[in-house]
Amino acid sequence: KAKVRTRHFLEAKRNGVRITGLTSYDTNTAAIFDAAGIDFLLVGDSAGNTVLGYDTTVPVTTEELIPLARAVASSVRRAFVVADLPFGSYEIGAEQALGTAIRFMKETGAHAVKLEGGRRSATQIARVVEAGIPVMAHIGFTPQSEHRLGGHRVQGRGAGADELLADALAVEDAGAFAVVLEMVPSEAARRVTERLTIPTIGVGAGPHVDGQLMVWTDFAGLSGGRVPRFVKRYADLRGVLTDAVTAFREDVEAGAYPAPEHEYPEA
Ligand code: KIV
Ligand code: NA
């Protein structure tokens, strides 16, 4: 199958074909998701929570994400790889955003970058796109601003729906090829989706969007604790791994592992 390119996103929207995305932070999941036909893989700064053990995405750095993005980009054949710009690596201005985006493109092999913010990030998006780097925008709930937003809260309710639309139009005008809508009511997402030419990618934005994205450790049931309402658990990897590790420990303690077939013969 032909490699996914930005053109594919626009064509999918025009043709009513839904786009699929998952986060990935390593070579094994990247290869599995790619082979299963997922259109794009996001090397999200959600790695802060899912891989690095932080409470939020705020402390995640470019240095931490670059090796993960390189692992994912070098493990796909068809999927489009998007690298997240972490907090603090693009807010200062367009030149900072471009500098960080160039690092990800040169050092990882990712095909595009993602950054958070609508109207407030429009100049950054325009500068990065002008330099030849595709940008996926991200509006609605933006986790890097969770302290200002007062936690993980639904955005775009009531008058917030107009704010969401203004942000969506701003990122489209700035040249983004797609926009993530995170944690917004379905009707607000529908309104944005109908107004935009570029596809909307929902993360907790209901069904009336052009594509769906999930954090892979959530969709596959690896993460512990509570998951947001919008997550559907397609597997119980935490349960599978817990059973496997318990069986291993019990085998070792009982002397049942290794068995003869695991031993190297003398000659
Ligand atoms: O970092 C991430 O995983 C994300 C998605 C949840 C949108 O930004
Ligand atoms: Na992110």
TrEMBL record:
The active site is at E182 (proton acceptor). It catalyses: (6R)-5,10-methylene-5,6,7,8-tetrahydrofolate + 3-methyl-2-oxobutanoate + H2O = 2-dehydropantoate + (6S)-5,6,7,8-tetrahydrofolate. It holds the Pfam family Pantoate_transf. Transmembrane segments: none annotated. Mg(2+) binds at D45, D84, E116. It is found in: Cytoplasm. Keywords: Cytoplasm, Magnesium, Metal-binding, Pantothenate biosynthesis, Transferase. Its main location: cytoplasm. Gene3D superfamilies: Phosphoenolpyruvate-binding domains. Its EC number is 2.1.2.11. 3-methyl-2-oxobutanoate binds at D45, S46, D84, K114. Pathway: Cofactor biosynthesis; (R)-pantothenate biosynthesis; (R)-pantoate from 3-methyl-2-oxobutanoate: step 1/2. Homodecamer; pentamer of dimers. Belongs to the PanB family. NCBIfam families: panB (TIGR00222), PRK00311.1 (NF001452). Catalyzes the reversible reaction in which hydroxymethyl group from 5,10-methylenetetrahydrofolate is transferred onto alpha-ketoisovalerate to form ketopantoate. This is 3-methyl-2-oxobutanoate hydroxymethyltransferase. It comes from Amnibacterium soli.
